[in-house]
Amino acid sequence: MPILDMVVIVTMAVWGFMTAWFLLSYMVDRADLIDIAWGLGFVWAAWLTWMLQGGGLGIKLAAAEFTTLWGLRLSLHILRRNVHKAEDHRYQEYRDKWGKHFWTFSYFRIFLVQGVLIVAISSSVMAIMLATATARSWLAVIGFVVWGLGIVLEAEADAELVKFVRRKQPGQIMTSGLWRYSRHPNYFGELTTWWGVAIVAISFGQWWGVIGAAVITLLITKISGIPLLEKHYANNKAFQRYKAHTSILIPLPPKK
């Protein structure tokens, strides 16, 4: 299947997926369901591209399975985190800002924008599914090892944070475990995951597979991930002390 046809079909499918999640969010009056939909959107896109290319076994099936492992784990983590809480403060702020237009703006500026990002980032998986050449097996193995390592790192960082939040005191911040070496180890795990995907794509000679990894790297490091969290803790003195001797992203020994 030509690349453009694949992109159009996946885009339309993701549009329908995100619209369904928007309608569910509207019915239960919780816009933060989008956070659960995010990971599942990648799972939907991965299996769709796998089926469009005729299914099959081997590396392409493994790519769909690894994407499912990453996306499903992330969505379940967010579901467990949010199930007994009020709507995330970010969306409550949007409610105050957008007023009576909240749901209209949410559809176009949150749900559909994230849908576009899912398609863009999933291009790395599409590159694998569209490959016709034979993969360099040694490079594919390296890619899957990196991919798997990223999933494990992100899951461990999230688990450590969940345990900490259960017993934290007001003003405390997470500084142990993986968080001792990076201020955002969960994001480092996520980026490792997607660069692993890119390496697998490159093993087929699909160099455009780096596009998705590059997009999520830009998103996390420059736009919505790390910058927003760093800003959120700008007035937290404990975080500023932590920041002074802890790497922002790549896990490194603490500075003395």
List keywords for this structure.
256 residues; mainly alpha; 2 domains; 10 helices
Could you characterize the architecture of this molecule?
The structure is a single chain. The chain is mainly alpha-helical and about 260 residues long. The protein has two domains: about 1-130, no CATH class; about 135-255, no CATH class. Helices cover about 75% and strands about 0% of the residues. It contains ten helices and no strands. Helix 2 (about 35-50) packs antiparallel against helix 3. It is globular and about 55 Å long.
In short:
The chain is mainly alpha-helical and 256 residues long. Helices cover 74% and strands 0% of the residues.
Shape summary: globular
Please estimate the helix content: over 70%
Number of structural units classed as domains: 2
Order of H and E elements: HHHHHHHHHH
Give the number of helices. 10
**Count of individual beta strands:** 0
Structural class: mainly alpha
Query: Any low-confidence stretches, pLDDT <50, length ≥5?
Result: none
Computed over alpha carbons, the radius of gyration is: 19 Å
Mean of residue pLDDT? 95
